[in-house]
Specification:
Strand content: over 45%
Largest sheet: 10 strands, antiparallel
Helix content: under 10%
Number of helices: 1
Low-confidence stretches: 1-27
Radius of gyration: 16 Å
Number of strands: 10
Mean pLDDT: 76
Structural class: mainly beta
Shape: globular
CATH architecture: Sandwich
CATH class: Mainly Beta
CATH topology: lipopolysaccharide transport protein A fold
CATH superfamily: Lipopolysaccharide (LPS) transport protein A like domain
Number of domains: 1
Distance between the termini: 44 Å
């Protein structure tokens, strides 16, 4: 379960982290901090090797918080393989800002996170929007895509608004 928040913490990529440059540090918070999970219900499926938390799910680790309607963790060889958050996904970190989307999937082995559906990244007053955010935790690379033209609000384009400091 320790990978659950590591994965979702990666979704807190700030707008400044979206530049194409290698990361000097991992894009995750304190992966050794205790993880707290609360939900309206929990279900384990031993045959499918998965655990599902549903209803007002809140996952916390250090100063990061994830909220979603559902969080499902699947395992392979008794190790976390995929962590999927769906339904009104919000990841909040004071250091990185807030990322929202319809769903997010962390694939443990390739160390990738994909956030999809109405993705919005906010840090302070800066905002970026797209339909899919892909983050490679191993390389520190992140790509925000705009989706198919005509099928998305933004017309298939990534949008950003950056406000300079007013000092």
């Amino acid at each position: 379960m320790k990978y659950a928040l590591i994965a979702l913490a990666a979704l807190t990529v700030s707008t400044s982290s979206l530049q194409a440059q290698p990361a000097a540090k991992p894009l995750v918070g304190n992966s050794n901090a205790p993880i707290g999970i609360s939900a309206d219900s929990f279900q384990a499926d031993l045959n499918a090797k998965s655990a599902t938390y549903t209803g007002n799910v809140i996952v916390t680790q250090a100063d990061m918080k994830l909220r979603a309607n559902t969080v499902k963790v699947t395992t392979v060889n008794d190790k976390a393989d995929k962590v999927t958050a769906s339904g009104n996904v919000v990841v909040d970190s004071p250091k990185s800002g807030i990322v929202t989307g319809d769903s997010g999937v962390y694939s443990v082995v390739p160390r990738t996170v994909v956030m999809t559906g109405n993705v919005v990244l906010k840090k302070g007053r800066d905002v970026m929007r797209g339909t899919q955010l892909t983050v490679n935790l191993a390389t520190g690379q992140a790509v925000l895509g705009g989706g198919v033209k005509g099928q998305t609000k933004g017309g298939g384009r990534v949008q950003g608004v950056f406000l300079p400091n007013s000092q």
